[in-house]
Amino acid sequence: MPKNNLWKVLLSIAVVGFFAYSMFPVKDREFVDFVKVEAQARQSEFDALLKEAGDRHKARQAPSAFIALKQIAAERKIDLTAAHFPKLDLGDVKNIEKKNAILLDYLLKESKARLQLGLDLKGGVAFTLEIAPAALANMQSHERKEKLTKAIDIIGSRINAFGVTEPIIRPVGDSRLEVQLPGVNTKDNPDVIDSLQKPAFLQFRLVHPTLTPATTGGQTPVGYERMTLEEDSRTGTRVEELYIKRVPEADGKIMKQAFARPDQFGKPEIILLFTKEGRSRFAQVTRAIVENSRDSGALGRLAIVLDGKLYSAPTVREEINSDSAQITGSFTDREAQNLANVLNNPLDVPMVVMEQYEVGPSLAQDAVDSGVRASIIGAALVAAFMITFYTTGGFVAVCTLAINVIIIFGFMARLGATLTLPGLAGIVLTIGMAVDANILIYERMREELAEGKSLASANQNGFAKALWTILDAHFVQLIVCAIMILLGTGPIKGFGVTLCIGVLSTLFSVLVVAHLTLEWLFTSGLVKKFTMRRMLKNIHIDWVRFGAPAFIASWLIVLAGLAVVAYKGNGIFGIDFKGGDAITLQYKQQIDTGKIRDLAAAGGHGEIVPAYISAIGGSQEMLRIETETGKSEALLAALQKTFPEAGLTSLGTSVIGETIGDEILYNALVAVLASMGIILLYIAFRFEFGFGIGAMFSSFHDILMAIGLFVLTGHHFSAPMVAAILAIAGYSINETVVVFDRIREELRINPNTSLRDVVNNAISKVFARTIMTATTTLLASIALWIWGTGVLKDIAFTFTMGVITSTFSAIFIASQVFYWWHKGDRKRVEKHQDVRPTYEWQGASRASK
């Protein structure tokens, strides 16, 4: 192997090793077993503490061994870090209880799997928040709805910053909202949801300049209240009692942004960035404090109070007229990050927890098994196809796909993502699409080998000729991802992040790892023959001739689908988009959730989501079924008739709101339209404006076609469908860029050929490759469609239609629109520098210089 490839080898090993390590552990470990192994000192004493904590939990004196251990350490004032984990650096924290809390929270987090399973596979914790009664008193119904909608957005931002956690957050009635968190349980730590209900009500309040509780004998001055400030110092925790003015000088509205960072001594602090008006107000407040200090002779202080807790009370020596201020206090790095996150997403109204319960997986085990089996079959079919048609190259492609998957899972684990069954299906579809880049290179190598070149030369030339096609196609997808991340929210943003990871990992695995491997195989002489089989021989037909009929036929299907969408209205949406009912049932004998789904489907009861729930701290389990509006009672009657031994009785029905609100839909639409505009500009810049028009038109056509076919076949839209349709847009661009790149190449090397012949020749040369790449993706999607169940079938059906449509549109829509845009005249195209023909005399002239 050439020495100049050493950096590629080292980079490949480092990247794969890093992301493989990021995936571990792959399963949750019991907290007690984990910390017993992790203890670093005085093992026998720690084992005794763990045994005592376990006994306390068994005796129901504590909800978990985790809490019991925390209680024992607090009662006996044991510094667990110093006694048993001296190698862990927890910073300069003096308060023993806080230090123990930091340590145990860290150990609990480390005991969990890096990549958590979603609500459909594993369940999680759910709780209901209600607007505090005092805040509800004078609030009209429309105000309640507005406050709930905003609360959903804020809580979503707190727990799902990257859009990959996949919680369920929706309104229940007109004053409550329900939050379901995957991969979380309260059995270990019941306080896991505390930070979500905090309103983050920030106030800047004056400290009494001369009086303290110590000097007044506890007599509180009028207009002030007594508050306690705790701060860590070198000698321990310093506690100070102060009188704080009740009426604030300013509140959180003067703040633009908050973020955490270490101060000059390495302790965490929170930086507040002010708005323009906020800076002016803060300057006024501090100026007034300085003036009062001159009169009283005592330095004034300004207290920072958040949610009724005094965090700091710094001294004000001069007017502060700057863009920022700091909050310092005795908090940890994690607390500082959480506090900054809460400050950036403040609730308008206080909310209280009304119910807390554990939620079981919404999919039955057989549905999960069938989904995993379908995913394995899909991946195996793609691998078999590549090895069959490309032999050694196919084997290399399969190996790079494995690396691709490792990078995707490792990256998701680093982001704290949640893996759902639709997410797993998305990764399988990514596998189907990822080999597209390999096929592009191999087909270029086929052309080089046909000219009699050596394997090493064919590899280098084929790679060079395919490189910019691959980069253009994937860069456009990255642009689409960036728009989804910037403009999207919730699942739209999450899909953008996941797709971006897939695109980057594909580029790395194909352009670095696969190319490096092939170069080594060829230059070392280990591979002397590179067998490549064909699905189709090159065909030469007048593609332009069939353009108009194909264009008209496809748009008639699109219009038919849009007509059905208009006719059905909200009828095309499922529970995710329009809400429904949730009926809670008591039972004597448990019914498999898969059987419940089958009964609902056979009886025409519409979409349902069944799950078993149990109140936290309680032993009774209940069955909760989400149904379409007004269909819960009919479903209950059918269940009672079919499963009389279950003894089902209703405990009540509630109205649940949508999880995909109008704002998410609006953001999705804005993201799609913005993507179309960016695609037009990028393709116009890299190719020519007519190419941009063709690409935009083709992508728009494919999205509408997918929606139309989905609705025409009687399917309902759910949250995963939004991601599937966005994935189709990315796949469509990929196929279109490949065709356009070949048209541009034909324009350069055939200066005397008409535009019609250029388009026909280009399509003929990429047609076999296009069918090959479409087949790999179809193998993955059809496997999910045949062997999957429920939402997997919907995703696979949508993507199957999308692959067929994208392949069709790359040939009959994008290239035809480009041809019509220029009215069949290549001179109109050649005005652009990148597509001007290359003449022989120009090459000779340059060579002679």
Structural features, described:
The protein has 849 residues and is an alpha+beta fold. The protein is 57% helix and 14% strand. The protein is built from 26 helices and 20 strands. The protein has an eight-stranded antiparallel beta sheet with strand order 3-4-2-15-18-19-17-20. Helix 14 runs antiparallel to helix 20. The longest helix is centred in the middle third of the chain and has 50 residues. The protein is globular, with a radius of gyration of 32 Å. The C terminus is likely disordered.
Rg (C-alpha, Å): 32 Å
Q: Please summarize the sheet with the most strands.
A: 8 strands, antiparallel
Structural class assignment: alpha+beta
- Report strand %: 5-15%
Oligomeric form of this entry?
Answer: single chain
Assign an overall shape: globular
What is the topology, as strand order, of the major beta sheet?
3-4-2-15-18-19-17-20
Number of beta-strand segments = 20
Terminal Cα span: 36 Å
**Low-confidence regions:** 839-849
Which range best describes the helical content: under 10%, 10-25%, 25-40%, 40-55%, 55-70% or over 70%? Answer: 55-70%
Average pLDDT figure: 83
- How many separate helices? 26
List the topology elements.
Elements lengths: L5 H17 L8 H8 L4 H16 L6 H12 L3 H5 L11 H15 L5 E2 L6 E8 L1 H4 L4 H19 L8 E5 L3 E7 L19 E5 L6 H4 L7 E10 L2 E10 L4 E2 L3 E8 L5 E7 L1 H21 L3 E7 L2 E4 L2 E2 L7 E4 L5 H12 L6 E9 L5 H50 L3 E2 L1 H30 L4 H33 L2 H34 L23 H22 L6 H4 L1 E7 L6 H10 L5 E8 L5 E7 L4 H11 L6 E8 L5 H25 L2 H24 L6 H31 L5 H33 L3 H31 L4 H4 L10 H9 L1
Parallel strand pairs: 1-16
Antiparallel strand pairs: 2-4, 2-15, 3-4, 5-8, 5-11, 6-7, 9-10, 10-14, 11-12, 11-13, 15-18, 17-19, 17-20, 18-19
Helix pairs in contact: 1-12, 3-4, 4-6, 12-13, 12-15, 12-23, 13-14, 13-15, 13-23, 14-15, 14-20, 14-22, 15-22, 16-21, 16-24, 20-21, 20-22, 21-22, 21-24, 22-23, 22-24, 23-24
